[in-house]
Amino acid sequence: MTAIDASRTVAVVGTGTMGQGIAQVALVAGHPVRLHDAAPGRAEEAAEAIAARLARLVEKGRMGADDRASALARLHPAAALSELADAALVVEAVLEQLPVKQELFRALEEVVADDCLLATNTSSLSVTAVAGALRLPGRFVGLHFFNPAPLLPLVEVVSGFATEESAAARAYETAKAWGKTPVRCADTPGFVVNRIARPFYAEAFAVYEERGADPATIDAVLRESGGFRMGPFELTDLIGQDVNEAVTRSVWESFFQSPKFTPSLAQRRLVESRRLGRKSGHGWYPYAEGAARPEPHTAEPREAPGSVTVAGDLGPAEELVALMEEAGITVERIEHGGPYITLPGSDGQLALADGHTSVEYTDAVFFDLALDYRAATRIALSAAPDTSPKAVAEATGLFQKLGKEVSVIGDVPGMIVARTVAMLIDLAADAVAKGVASAEDVDTAMRLGVNYPLGPLQWHERLGKDWAYDLLHTLDERCPGGRYAPSLALFQLGYAAEGDDAR
Fold it and tell me: ∠ at Cα 47 (46, 51), nearest 5°?
């Protein structure tokens, strides 16, 4: 199936931010574009806004003046739906209300030809449900662009229950011809990105609710150790707490209130207090003029041990051995026991977060997962209230000697980065096993849609076949209720890696 020819008209209904962005993408790709909005004058205003954005592209040298003039000649506001009759594709970007969308598409079916592709840009509603009102639901697809549509490359091409393969393939090829990176997915709550991304927010909020650390510290650890571009608190302030919480609640309710997707009470309180983030002047952080940005907790300088003993293979943290030796710390290796690092001054043990808590052991300090221990600039440590201060100080000094800032947090099982990554891996594995999308498309979607440093399944391969399963299994024992119960898909991934001896 080939893409819709650039000579054919693309219509966009709904001229808010997303509608304008989608129209601009189609316009720059060479299509004649018609804009329609139910509110009088909105389509004309949108056309003017698009013209202004194209002018800025010319000023920046990203578009030629002639190309802009040609594009604007193909852009036409449409006062009535009847003016969209010759469209080969209509993309809807109106209110996220099912009756509104269904009524619109019923009206469009009376206007456009039977071979016109109909698409919704919904991010939270069922594509199948929207199409349920149509005479020809087979030509209906989801085309979920990410904001801002002209800049972000990802498009989720969503097949509803009745979507014909030819329609989905045509939508995919058209998005590709527009310079986007499309991924195919089934009609499931949240599609790929909004389904799998929930733990990035939920685990950070849970650590906060467990009084493990403050928002600034959690954000810093996920950025500077986990490699994420933004932390979840600052990101939800940017998105809008009401918007992010609504998506979380929608996915949770669509999955029949599964504990895997339980919303955050702390975020609900923010929304109820109208602390919605940047747009309201206050969210997790204050944004009023002159307001000081909270700083992450950073430990005072401590003395590093001159030598350590490493028991067993540190697995994902094995690179720390080379870093300690390069920093002048003598490392003795022993094969039995572990995996942990013994601190000589206190006989404390330093171990990678694995779902256990420090209170279960004598003088145990856990350190968090890092995307790359060499590149990481901050490491989180956790300890129990009765862990000896000397063990915490030695562990702190060790990582400071390696050039890292250290944040000491509460005794949180699975810490911050580790539990977040394990949950992302689990939801990704479950989505692939249930046919939501291919493993390749899941990883592509998460890298391009939310700028994750690695796709969750790439992370799984890097960390090892058992790592996420074992951490979640241990975490589930300490926090029962089903939220952390590893999926069957994750369990089976371990066996698929090496056959019957995988675990």
Answer: 115
pLDDT tens sequence across 235-274: 999 999 999 999 999 999 999 999 999 999 999 999 999 9
Give, for 340, the enclosing helix (H) or strand (E). strand 340-342
Topology (CATH) of 195-296+417-503:
N-(1-d-carboxylethyl)-l-norvaline Dehydrogenase; domain 2 (1.10.1040)
Q: pTM (2 decimals)? A: 0.95
Residue 213 burial (10 A CB sphere; 0-12, 13-18, 19+): buried
Residue of 194, 244, 264, 358 marked active site: 194
Pairing mode of beta strands 87-92, 117-120:
parallel
| Catalytic, out of 83, 92, 109, 156 | 156
- DSSP run (H or E) holding 252: helix 241-254
| Domain 307-409, architecture per CATH | 2-Layer Sandwich (3.30)
Mean pLDDT of 489-501: 74
156 is catalytic: yes
As annotated, the residues of the chain forming the CATH 3.40.50.720 domain(s) are: 9-187
User: Could you tell me the fold of the domain covering 9-187?
Assistant: Rossmann fold (3.40.50)
**Annotated catalytic residue: which of 36, 144, 297, 356?**
144
**194 in catalytic set:** yes
Residue 49 has pLDDT above 50, yes or no: yes
Q: Is 144 a catalytic residue?
A: yes
User: Which of these, 104, 106, 147, 102, lies nearest to 123 by C-alpha position?
Assistant: 147
Q: How far apart are CA 494 and CA 271, in angstroms?
A: 40
Q: What is the mean pLDDT of residues 325-350?
A: 93
What Cα–Cα distance (Å) separates residue 275 from each residue in 171, 179, 230, 231, 242?
A: 39, 37, 19, 18, 9
Q: Which of 36, 121, 123, 487 is catalytic?
A: 123
Domain(s) of CATH 1.10.1040.50: residues in the chain: 195-296+417-503
